[in-house]
Amino acid sequence: MFLQSNVLYTITAGMEGWELFRNSLLPMLSGAIQYTIPLTLISFAGGLLLALLTAMMRLAKSRFIQLPAVVYVSAIRGTPLLVQLFIIFYGLPNIGLNIDPFPSAAIAFILNVGAYASEIIRASVLSIPKGQWEAAYTIGMSRGTALRRIILPQSARVSVPPLSNTFISLVKDTSLASLVLVTELFRKAQEIAARTYDFLLLYVEAALIYWVICFLLSLVQTVIERRLDRYVAK
């Protein structure tokens, strides 16, 4: 009798768990579509532009131009992303700058991506043989023209794999936006868990959704890398 009761309890709990899993899937996907994915795209696009500017400053011959970029990269790489997020959302209001949750998260992620991606771009540019520069100068190109027409197109292929990894990592990092009240995927999981007290199931479900998104992005990354490899001499 006791064994039968345990079996019935297990079956009932399993059915309730599946029902909760199914009912919470749509709200989590909604959070991913409305906030997680847009936040990722906006942050990566803005961060990439900032990274390109920062990398060009790091590569400049003038120490005066290099210094702000060096300080910026050092500050971002030397502090946790969560601290940066809290400074922008909770700290800036102390000096009268009140920023809504979504823009706060976007600014923090843009600054973070910009610092790390700038090092990727800088390393990619430096990986191009000096002979490419010399050939460009030989036909009368200026440094800026050579960089724009010769060096950056080649370094773009080199930087695709690490930049793709940065993008995939950013998808996961957006979960930190839940701490500044952005109702993205993980925040939805937290809200549902707070009502149902089934934290393990809901957090595992959120993890599975992140995993699926990142897996699909990794497939896209593989396709892009293969297409770019076709233009490399074997």
Automatic annotation (TrEMBL):
Key word Mitochondrion present: no
Cross-referenced Pfam families: BPD_transp_1
Keyword annotations of the record: Amino-acid transport, Cell membrane, Membrane, Transmembrane, Transmembrane helix, Transport
Compartments, as annotated in UniProt: Cell membrane
Gene3D superfamilies, per database record: MetI-like
InterPro entries in the cross-refs: AA_ABC_transptr_permease_3TM (IPR010065), ArtM/GltK/GlnP/TcyL/YhdX-like (IPR043429), MetI-like (IPR000515), MetI-like_sf (IPR035906)
Chief site of localization: membrane
Domain ABC transmembrane type-1 as annotated: residue spans: 33-221
Transmembrane segments: 32-57, 69-90, 102-121, 200-224
Membrane disposition: Multi-pass membrane protein
Family as reported in the entry's similarity comment: Belongs to the binding-protein-dependent transport system permease family.
Protein name as catalogued: Amino acid ABC transporter permease
Native source species: Mesobacillus maritimus
